[in-house]
């Protein structure tokens, strides 16, 4: 999952461009989501930073770079000093915010769940480090990916160490929910790995050999699982019973899938100045993202045109030219891929709200989680 | 650390060629070590196998191949069915044996520490999978490495999943020592990663730019740390106090360094029919193993010859020819590298025994751990 977002004015904002603390709330984000995210960063980033400082020096350097706290040469990155509340480094903290907000929604004290929130963020970043190596992605959060700066081995090892750090954080947490949270987080890692495996396998297959169900299952494992786990961990830390924990997991999963669908739309039609990627980068790389696969499955003339564009890129352009990507984008739209993705995102959001209502029937208690879920899916690219 | 062993007749035995249950004890292994290892395998391999069966299908296949339980096509490997006590698959189980034997030495019940023993073995194998990718090693335990069969991505993802599985096993263990064991194992993973980082970094430097102290520190992190952690986890599960846990860690670390020194000697002078690698493979690859670095640091004429051989391989042979490796082996020997490694291994063993005596003064209680430590260092290649 990439980390981009938008406001309702229709412009994509990449991570780091929104929610500066003290700044005005942007239209469409809503004051509640903005406040929750800023407060989650204030609570969790110092814990995260402290944990990363305990890594062995060689790997600490890679981790500090990856989180955006240091430049490649080890000098502090702009805004990293004392900016625990800023989104300018280390991301928006959506997952930690889900942990803390879920804990509160189920009657727990968010302050007690800070380690769990940091552990989830460490796992997220461990998978980003490894996925970037496997996918040969060269840009993340507007900066060169860690493997391009430090090499594959250091990126792999730092990812390994971040997973270990996440688990140590929970193993050392005296909270009674910590062991169950640790087991759930470990199970989630296995699902994330299976999701990334499926993603790599799907990318190797031809555009007509991939079904929408396979792609949705992959997206659920790769993106939904960790958002679900974040919500579930909050519930575990609130002492919720297993049914409620599972409902919260379902809420996060469905919202995560909505998130992914919108992210895929942004990957095609997002503003490159905001996403940090070239226009239509996903199409130029012939990525089988969800709107594309839906378009291919539509049986329309535009689907046939898209299949041909995906099968046979213009000669001499290994990853496709901008013109090629633009033609593909128009074909996806004509084949209904964009409309389907938006409608399906809305559908997933309503399923998410349904799951949440089971565990948290009081709308006031559920408000924070709803605000976060809407924050990630209200984005209009 | 590779997995080879020898008997006192002077022949290297690769893993899987010794300690068949019910078979005669080979001279030099000692009945006690053989019995401890076979019994550890009987206890731990079924637990390990059960855990691996819970992995998502795509990664389970890679794990079953890596452990030697299945062929690349998914068919069962010879001797894998019901062979929980056999060393023919999944390795000798030295680390699990150390966990169980340490638990017993400190008055605990080894049967209660089986999950911890399996978790240590999972971590060991996660690092093997990743190290093979980074080092581009093509052979392990006489078989093609996982990345050569399934690709880099699947080897990385399966390693990630095995780390998660190890931590879940401890998180789900109701034993009161489990959280402390989980935290210790996670810290050990970070040290293993730092050791592998140092190994990669040292290999990139010239032969005259590497000190023996750096190489010893790297070997302690890369090999000693996990053997130390295995012993420490056994002590934790026996309810030992922190001083005794730390002494057991020190015992395993020192024995691990002795193990590595002997392994490095085998990497140069071992019998290729037993090691599964070509004769002098480490030298042909110009690996800066401990005997080599000791030889280079000796200030002898043979050291200068060796430095030249390492600096300038014969033309046309990127990784060195067998003749080149043979000349290098003779130079290491003349420069005293072989003698130093053997003497230093003996020194580390006596430090190990000293650490053990602090926590377990009763020689009878310490007997099993001593037998295991001697098993790995009595090897005469």
List its traits.
mainly alpha, Farnesyl Diphosphate Synthase, two-stranded antiparallel sheet, 16 helices, 4 strands, globular
Structural notes for this entry:
- The structure is a homodimer of 381-residue chains.
- Chain A has a single domain (15-377), classed as Farnesyl Diphosphate Synthase (Orthogonal Bundle), CATH 1.10.600.10.
- Chain A has 16 helices and four strands.
- Chain A has helices spanning 31-53, 57-66, 94-105, 114-135, 146-150, 152-171, 178-204, 212-237, 242-269, 272-275, 281-284, 290-296, 301-311, 322-334, 337-359, 363-377; strands at residues 4-6, 12-14, 139-140, 143-144.
- In chain A, the strands form two sheets. Chain A has a two-stranded antiparallel ribbon with strand order 1-2.
- In chain A, a hairpin with a 5-residue loop joins strand 1 and strand 2 (12-14).
- In chain A, helix 3 packs antiparallel against helix 4, helix 4 packs antiparallel against helix 8 and helix 8 (212-237) packs across helix 9 (242-269).
- Residues 1-28 and 81-87 of chain A have low confidence and may be disordered.
- Chains A and B meet through helix 2, helix 4, helix 6 and helix 7 of A and helix 2, helix 4, helix 6 and helix 7 of B.
């Amino acid at each position: 999952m990439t980390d981009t977002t938008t406001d309702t004015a229709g412009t994509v904002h990449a991570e780091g461009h929104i929610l500066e603390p003290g700044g005005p709330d942007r239209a469409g984000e809503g004051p509640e989501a903005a406040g929750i995210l800023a407060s989650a960063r204030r609570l969790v980033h110092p814990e995260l930073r402290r944990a990363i400082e305990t890594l062995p020096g060689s790997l600490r350097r890679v981790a500090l770079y990856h989180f955006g706290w240091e430049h490649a040469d080890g000098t502090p990155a702009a805004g990293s000093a004392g900016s625990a509340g800023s989104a300018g480094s280390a991301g928006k903290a959506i997952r930690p915010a889900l942990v803390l907000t879920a804990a509160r929604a189920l009657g727990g004290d968010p302050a007690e769940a800070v380690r769990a929130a940091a552990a989830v963020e460490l796992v997220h970043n461990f998978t980003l480090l490894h996925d970037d190596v496997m996918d040969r992605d060269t840009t993340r959060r507007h900066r060169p990916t860690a493997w391009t700066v430090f090499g594959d081995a250091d990126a792999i090892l730092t990812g390994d160490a971040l997973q270990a750090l996440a688990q140590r954080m929970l193993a050392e947490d005296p909270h009674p929910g910590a062991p169950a949270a640790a087991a759930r987080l470990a199970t989630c890692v296995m699902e994330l790995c299976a999701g990334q495996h499926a993603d790599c396998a799907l990318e190797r297959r031809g555009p007509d050999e991939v079904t929408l169900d396979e792609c949705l299952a992959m997206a659920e494992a790769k993106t939904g699982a960790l958002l679900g786990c974040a919500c579930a961990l909050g519930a575990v830390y609130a002492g919720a019973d297993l049914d409620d924990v599972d409902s919260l997991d379902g809420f996060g999963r469905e919202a995560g899938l909505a998130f992914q669908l919108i992210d895929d739309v942004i990957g095609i039609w997002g503003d490159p100045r905001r996403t940090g990627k070239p226009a239509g980068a996903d199409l130029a790389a012939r990525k089988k993202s969800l709107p594309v696969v839906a378009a291919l499955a539509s049986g329309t003339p535009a689907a046939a045109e898209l299949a041909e564009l995906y099968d046979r890129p213009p000669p001499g352009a290994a990853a496709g030219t901008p013109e090629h990507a633009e033609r593909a984008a128009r074909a996806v739209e004509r084949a209904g891929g964009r409309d389907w993705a938006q409608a399906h995102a809305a559908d997933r959001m309503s399923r998410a709200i349904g799951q949440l209502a089971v565990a948290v029937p009081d709308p006031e208690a559920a408000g924070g989680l709803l605000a976060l879920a809407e924050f990630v899916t209200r984005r209009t690219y």
